[in-house]
Amino acid sequence: MSYLLNDDAKALRESAERFFAGADTLTCLRQWRNDRDLTGAAHGVWGTMAELGFAATLIPEEFGGVGLDRRASVQISEIMGRTLANGPFVSSAVMAATALLAGNSAKLKTELLPAIAEGMAIALATEESARHAPHAIQAVAKHDSAGFRITGRKVAVIDGNIAQKLIVTAHTTDGANIVAMVDANTPGITLNTRMGLDSRPLVDVMLNDVHVPESDLICDPADTLTVLDAAYDMGRLHLAAEMLGAAQEAFDRAVEYLKTRVQFGKKIGEFQALQHRAAILFGELEIARSTVLKAAATGSAEHISMAKARVGDIARHVAGEAVQFHGGIGVTDDFDLGFFLKRIRVAAEQLGDSAFHTERYATIRGL
Predict the structure, then answer these.
(1) Overall CATH class of domain 226-365
(2) Radius of gyration of the chain (CA)
(3) How far apart (Å, rounded) are the C-alpha atoms in residues 175 and 179?
(4) Which of 75, 151, 268, 311 is deepest in the core (most CB within 10 A)?
């Protein structure tokens, strides 16, 4: 299987590069942080992204989408990482769309996939806690005459504060798991939104006896974990691509600084010790890029976990070194590097950290 980009993926990447280069996303991010505008921070430039068709990338043409594959969509995530652009691309256009496509509800596909393509925000309410455990579903669903009543708490829901609908998982009293589409304004749903380390919203969703009609189940209960794994893995792949983009930008800025900063009468990039460290980072970034492309090409859980773990470790190392190259000023607000460092650290934890995915990779490989 070729890991090279096809013409559609190349064209999409070029379109994303042109758009995000002129979007001034870092200035906006600073303003949202200073104003503590968590709604603006979550929306980001999503409206224009949807107009450009980015929200429709993975949605089949029959549902009003563009119908491209993972190798194309990860290009958008990578450029978003390079520019720290906000918007519910991973949560809605990737994870929610994947969950709907993997399910068997023709009604929900017909209603919601075209809406996602046009920019509707849908968030996957995941089972996050001290350690990522996506199959350890804690919310409880009790049967009633018209469907289910769900009670529970979902932690660190990506873009949960702007989602018009939520994909909610729950464990039924008879031992099954369900995944359902719920309107975010349904009585019994409350949000706790605060600012995260990366200046983006950190959203907890509380559900108290929330009614869900059986017709709003995305799939048969027996297929719940399969559908969830498909959505989680697509999210993990695109978070890995975003971290790759952020790390590459941090590295490029660091190299530029090495070329211009003068100390002891010489440009610091002339010191061999710093050249060696930069060369190591360059090699690590090439490894990270290869793992993302391989995971995008195969789509296998094994390769996606490898990419999430490896890129997370590499991106943290690259961002940390980029700050070190700048010295103490690297983490001050006069520079943007701190934003990249923080975003990488948050993305590395979302949907499973390096430890989780290393263990998962080993389990899949039978190690």
Answers:
(1) mainly alpha
(2) 21
(3) 14
(4) 311
Q: Which residue has the tokens 């999409």?
A: 12
Q: How many residues does the chain have?
A: 367
Q: How far apart are CA 220 and CA 224, in angstroms?
A: 7
Domain at 7-120: CATH code: 1.10.540.10
Model confidence over 131-154: pLDDT tens digits?
788 888 999 999 988 899 999 999
Residue 162 has pLDDT above 80, yes or no: yes
Tens of pLDDT, residue by residue over 48-85, are: 999 999 999 999 999 999 999 999 999 999 999 999 99
Q: CA torsion angle for 68, 128, 36, 79 (degrees, to 10)?
A: -30
Q: What are the residue ranges spanned by the domains of the chain?
A: 7-120, 124-220, 226-365
Q: Which CATH superfamily is domain 124-220 in?
A: Butyryl-CoA Dehydrogenase, subunit A, domain 2 (2.40.110.10)
Q: Do domains 124-220 and 226-365 have the same CATH topology?
A: no
Q: What tens digit of pLDDT does each residue of 106-123 get?
A: 999 999 999 999 999 999
User: What does the alpha-carbon distance between residue 155 and residue 284 come to, in Å, rounded to a whole number?
Assistant: 32
pTM of the model: 0.96
